[in-house]
Design a protein that fits this description.
Helix content: 25-40%
Shape: globular
Organism: Heyndrickxia camelliae
CATH topology: Alpha-D-Glucose-1,6-Bisphosphate, Chain A, domain 4
CATH architecture: 2-Layer Sandwich
Number of helices: 3
CATH class: Alpha Beta
Protein name: Cell division protein
Keywords: Cell cycle, Cell division
Length: about 150
Amino acid sequence: MSVKIFIKAPIEKCFDLARDVEIHTKTTSITKERAVGGIISGLLELGDTVTWEAVHFGIKQRLTAQIIEMEKPNRFVDIMVKGTLHSFVHTHQFMEEKEGTIMIDQFQYKSPLGIIGVLADKLFLEKYMRKFIISRANELKKIAENGGK
């Protein structure tokens, strides 16, 4: 799935906000997400890992992600190295425009549990994940456009 949003802020600011651990926590407050391991503050860099704790579907979960690609200020990629999903790859892409930045979030994941996971995707998980990614993008946009950290 892919989400594209225009942000009226410089590309460098958008890129840094998207990889800022504290900003991530602010933009995912709906799931009470917080960093509990690895890099727990500051900007994520190539090779860094962070363990997030969040509440999804009423269940507290932990997920560890690692930054595997970094092309400042245009792109970075994180993958799940430990968590409840079978796998995920999250590509954050930024394109400079005359009036700001286009941010594209591409999120590819595979559910666990084979056919049961595929069924869960179709019934609710895909919709839930899209809503989560859109919500985070909109919150990041607000912070960037209002001069936040």
